[in-house]
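Summary for the steering committee. The consortium agreed at its last meeting that each partner would contribute one worked example illustrating the joint modelling workflow. Our contribution is presented below. We chose a case with several input lines so that the handling of multiple components could be demonstrated. No manual editing was applied between input and output; the record is shown as generated.
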Amino acid sequence: MYTAKITMSSSYFLADTIKTYYEDHGDNRSYPLILIHPIGGNVLIWHHEISLLLKSGFRVIAYELRGHYRTNMGKVGAYTMQDLVNDLHQLLKHLNIKRCSIIGHSIGGIIASMYAAQFPDSVDAIVLINSSPRKFEEKDLEKHFKTREVAIRDGIEALAEYKLQTFDETRDLLKDKRHSDFFRDVFTKTSVEGFVAATIALYTVPENVVEKLQTSNCKVFAIVGSDDDVFTRLLKETKEEMPEMELKVLDGSDHWVIIEKPKEMYDILMNFLRKLQ
Amino acid sequence: MYTAKITMSSSYFLADTIKTYYEDHGDNRSYPLILIHPIGGNVLIWHHEISLLLKSGFRVIAYELRGHYRTNMGKVGAYTMQDLVNDLHQLLKHLNIKRCSIIGHSIGGIIASMYAAQFPDSVDAIVLINSSPRKFEEKDLEKHFKTREVAIRDGIEALAEYKLQTFDETRDLLKDKRHSDFFRDVFTKTSVEGFVAATIALYTVPENVVEKLQTSNCKVFAIVGSDDDVFTRLLKETKEEMPEMELKVLDGSDHWVIIEKPKEMYDILMNFLRKLQ
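What follows is the complete predicted structure of the assembly.
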């Protein structure tokens, strides 16, 4: 299916005490796209995107955040968003990638935004999938008081079920058993510690990311499921501050668009990426 | 020195996976004061206050926050301010304390404020020592990017030295060897994990604490060292919103007033506590 020159290497990159798992797909002379998964995600969640983007001729690098599946937590069990940005910076330095575009889902898009704001000469474009560069409101994060409690008390499998049964954003996945099974399979590979730390890191999104993106040359694209209230609101606010951002709304979809609508997502993604040339 | 009926018990209280260390000094029929230490502190830091408040006839309960000296971190290495408030709630329930006043230094005062805002019928007064019920500004917390890095990379002893040599707030302690030795002795009993988690928890202070305190009957007193810029500013802003708060400024003192000026602090404290009757 792939041409012979396409190679894949999966490896660990060690920065301080964080051993970051990453996969490097395709020709390393091709243009690099970096994929960053959401909280409770990992490289597995991108399997459609990796295969489709590879066929379109990109080099695709996907890695796992602290405490998610094959990346460890390091010496301590708490981190800020800036720590996650530093981890990405170390990884790109290690891979000797000087310019790239970054595709991030949810927390992954926040990392992409902060990275592009901090290293404007290294990032041509960011694609935010159900994500935004704006600071959350306090109420947006309150649901995680309960998710953390369930995770700590009952474990990550119980949290996956709790999310599927309780949250609008994941309840849609139950309509298709393949979707809910896939969600369970990916989500339960997250460590409780990683989940807790990541949801608390959401409080540490800096205030000036949009402002910094405005003064950079980095293109900003965004995709949001119409039923994802929080990110629909945050992206609407972002669009007001940054009218040049291209925003696509995927009707009848919620937070987990990657799982629910891979084909539609890919079409929008390619439409964005074509504008980079 | 103490009368016979004064007893002290030190014990652990277990809530979920958190084993909270606490000391319960004095007659349990006396009015209870709860002491909450700052980040990098523990029960040792209150030794002057415990002895003086005991002689004044109070029951004095001091405990240690997650990851600080004799209290463990539990299953995960990250927590929010609300988790610390819940720990205090569990402890007071365990001790069957229905009404009390709370004295908190720095993060301890934030916990006191949030607790009083949430349980207005349980708290007669809070005393904030270099602390405030207001949310921090982003820049107030930026110094901890460096302190966390030092702690994780070089350990807690190195962080104690770094703080003593670098920070205005602790540099004053070097003027008196007894102060700096005492600071080192207390501070280095903190776990790296506890320090990191607590500094990140500072991002999670809710916005509406002052508002809730205004509508409660809880009296609010505050003491601040004149050289502590952050808390002087935050307390000035608090005073504007809540003019009934009594604020005392301790001239020529910084963040570690407990260590630097125990006598002056005690006089102000007793002056506050006399108003409770």
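The beta strands of chain B are 8-15, 18-25, 32-36, 59-63, 100-105, 123-129, 219-225, 246-250. The CA atoms of residues 45 and 186 of chain B lie 7 Å apart.
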